[in-house]
């Protein structure tokens, strides 16, 4: 049974499969970030309080890149990088484009997580003990949760919209 959250959005259901539970929480937090951009223009989505913090568009763009780095880079060994521009995307990135990229990345992350044999499978590029699929999913949940809270604050400062 789902439990309604403060915003009326249901919390993830309790499931016996740990992998599916982790993916459900990640999806829930992605949804929180996506909802923060609902109804905003590209200009509003780029707004940064006093030029500080990260814009809502920057948050979503960053989270898209975080998942890409950990899954494609960490597990599949693809060359990846981290650039400061992901936090402050240029005018070529619209809300619609960023949303589509985030949803596409989410689908790729979920497909990869389901294809990896075990939660104990170690990331190819990370040799530290414990850096397995479980750790990576928890790390992605942590990143999404931290930035969802950040998005809450930015959106409230932007137009007084409150929520999860």
Give a description of the structure.
This protein is mainly α. It has one domain: Four Helix Bundle (Hemerythrin (Met), subunit A) (Up-down Bundle). Helix content is 56%, strand content 0%. It has five helices and no strands.
Q: SSE order in H/E notation? A: HHHHH
Mean pLDDT across every amino acid position: 89
Radius of gyration using CA atoms only: 16 Å
Q: Give the structural class.
A: mainly alpha
Helix count from the secondary structure assignment: 5
Percentage beta strand:
under 5%
Low-confidence parts? 1-5
Largest sheet properties: none
Question: Helix coverage percent of residues?
Answer: 55-70%
Please name the fourth-level CATH homologous superfamily. Answer: dinb family like domain
In a nutshell, what does this entry contain?
The protein is an all-alpha fold and 164 residues long.
Question: Which helices and strands occur, and which strands form pairs?
Answer:
Blueprint: H1 18-36, H2 42-46, H3 56-75, H4 95-115, H5 133-159
List keywords for this structure.
Four Helix Bundle (Hemerythrin (Met), subunit A), 164 residues, mainly alpha, disordered N terminus, single chain, 5 helices
């Amino acid at each position: 049974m789902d439990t309604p959250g403060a915003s009326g959005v249901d919390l993830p259901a309790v499931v016996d499969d740990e992998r599916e539970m982790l993916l459900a929480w990640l999806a829930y937090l992605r949804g929180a970030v996506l909802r923060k951009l609902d109804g905003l223009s590209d200009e509003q989505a780029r707004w940064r309080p006093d030029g500080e913090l990260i814009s809502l568009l920057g948050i979503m763009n960053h989270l898209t890149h975080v998942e890409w780095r950990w899954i494609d880079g960490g597990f599949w060994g693809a060359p990846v990088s981290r650039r400061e521009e992901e936090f402050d995307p240029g005018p070529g990135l619209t809300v619609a484009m960023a949303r589509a990229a985030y949803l596409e990345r989410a689908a790729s992350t979920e497909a990869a997580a389901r294809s990896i044999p075990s939660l104990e499978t170690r990331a190819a590029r990370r040799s530290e003990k414990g850096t397995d699929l479980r750790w990576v999913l928890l790390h992605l949940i942590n990143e999404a949760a931290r930035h969802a809270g950040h998005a809450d604050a930015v959106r409230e400062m932007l137009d007084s919209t409150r929520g999860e």
